[in-house]
Design goal:
The protein has a single domain, classed as Four Helix Bundle (Hemerythrin (Met), subunit A) (Up-down Bundle), CATH 1.20.120.450. Helix content is 57%, strand content 5%. It is built from nine helices and two strands; from the N terminus they run ααααααααββα. A two-stranded antiparallel ribbon has the order 1-2. Helix 1 packs antiparallel against helix 7, helix 1 runs parallel beside helix 9 and helix 2 packs antiparallel against helix 7. The chain is elongated. The two termini are 30 Å apart. The relative contact order is 0.18. The mean pLDDT is 95.
Length: 174
């Protein structure tokens, strides 16, 4: 499927509601869950998504439209949420994400992107040349990937409790 703003928006506008439904009343034993090591907890993911709203998706889209490939995107600090989220509650993070996402989707629609604009290019610091269509498609995939990551971190908490089913479910495979 080729990128289309209206199709992307259908997913992007739902992410805050999905997060709130899944995490809002879950409790810290679920929301601080990890699959091990330096992996993201659901709490971390929400903070990471907030950082992306502030520094990545729309800001980089504007860079592509305004500067093209002549200006390289600033590197994205995928761990910036660890300091930014410290001391905040999950409900506060969910509220912040919802407000930022609402603004981002409004700005995306206001860009009134034509097929020609979607083919404009920018320069990613590690990937090189990317089109606006690539970038905006990744926004949707990024959301879906982190929703899957949250589900995996939560399911991981019952990896021993499921007994003999552990090896037969893909979400619990290392």
């Amino acid at each position: 499927m080729d990128y289309q703003v209206d199709q992307a928006v259908r997913i992007l506008v739902r992410t805050p509601d999905v997060l709130r439904s899944l995490l809002g009343e879950a409790g810290p034993e679920w929301t601080n869950a990890r699959t091990g090591g330096d992996t993201f907890s659901p709490f971390d993911v929400v903070g990471h998504l907030i950082h992306g709203e502030r520094t990545d998706w729309i800001p980089r889209a504007r860079m592509i439209l305004e500067s093209g490939p002549s200006v390289t995107f600033p590197p994205f600090d995928r761990f910036a949420m660890r300091d930014a989220s410290r001391g905040q509650s999950l409900p506060d993070l969910l509220d912040t994400f919802e407000a930022l996402r609402s603004r981002s989707v409004r700005e995306l629609k206001e860009l009134d992107l034509s097929p020609d604009l979607l083919q404009r290019t920018g320069t990613h610091p590690t990937l090189g040349t990317v089109t606006l269509s690539h970038h905006l498609s990744m926004w949707v995939v990024h959301d879906l990937g982190h929703l899957a990551q949250i589900a995996r971190a939560m399911a991981w908490q019952y990896r021993d409790a499921v007994g003999p089913w552990r090896d037969s479910t893909t979400i619990l495979k290392p």
